């Protein structure tokens, strides 16, 4: 194993032998050139890691790199080894680091499928396919920068709701990337990227509109204006403060009339259980049962299947049109019921149990301040102010100077005191 300073002349003169051999450099420990039987001359750096593992990664071939260039690279890597790092491992890490396209697939299989509902997983796949992969799919996960994320969000300005969803899921994905070893801790590129302003909040159905809706439901049941399955579903959604899917998928086997409780084995937030109010009990007891059908709200043409959400939504739209009420989605039913629950004075935890919300912030986003309450509060504040001003006069208080006021001349200070005394007298004269 010859040891001498590696030079261009030395390597040019190195002859090919039946077996590979190494020419080691005397200036940089571990720096060498391997001459193979095929005639290749490859620069390498041999070192030991802190754990005692032997490494001998290639630097490059002679010809593509000069001796001086290869020696400089070897010196830089040797310095990193002395600092406790492993250049070879870092290179393997960079090579194995997935692209964002690959990471999206990993996220779906490793996190979303085991932890999310199928509909949520489907939504993630659509978001990845339409927005994320086309823009940053070719970039390595550890090379995604804040600028890349900011540009992605900016490019989605036409669809701000989808942009906010993409930002939220990417923020969580990069947290997973740190845990799974794809990025260094604390390097989430989504930090400080602002969301688009929230869109219009779901409008609250007023008391007058609520009366119109229930009056129409009564007439529809009496005159046959709507299929009774639709009217029953709408009434039950109000009674249970439920999501549309919780009503359209409700089964008779989930209802315990003796305990007066309904238990959904699965929902958007997992299994939930709600008590049956007197109104809901009356609706369920009087609801028609279709032979062999497990559903409380079955399809209108096939009783063996649950009612399709689109048909339910269309029925709700027809009800609003008949009542001459501006359109709001079926989720407005939950907003109205959550507001009624909050305004009824029940504890917050109880209200969240009735709506099946797990986070206080989410529950409060469903609670609206009703116009009547705001107006009554404004009147109360006005009355208190009037009562205060109509009270007994304030005793005369001698105004004493608090000391020299910086920036005022003696003449200006005297004028200021006179104005203050005049205003004080005016208050006492009321």
From TrEMBL:
Belongs to the 'phage' integrase family. The keyword DNA-binding applies. GO terms for molecular function: DNA binding. This is Integrase. It holds the Pfam family Phage_integrase. The keyword DNA-binding applies. GO terms for biological process: DNA integration; DNA recombination. InterPro entries: CB, DNA_brk_join_enz, Integrase-like_cat_sf, Integrase_catalytic, Integrase_DNA-bd_sf, Integrase_DNA_bind_dom, Integrase_recombinase_N, Integrase_SAM-like_N. Signal peptide: none annotated. Residues 200-379 form the Tyr recombinase domain. Residues 98-178 form the Core-binding (CB) domain. Keywords: DNA integration, DNA recombination, DNA-binding. It comes from Novosphingobium guangzhouense. Transmembrane segments: none annotated. The lineage of its organism: Bacteria, Pseudomonadati, Pseudomonadota, Alphaproteobacteria, Sphingomonadales.
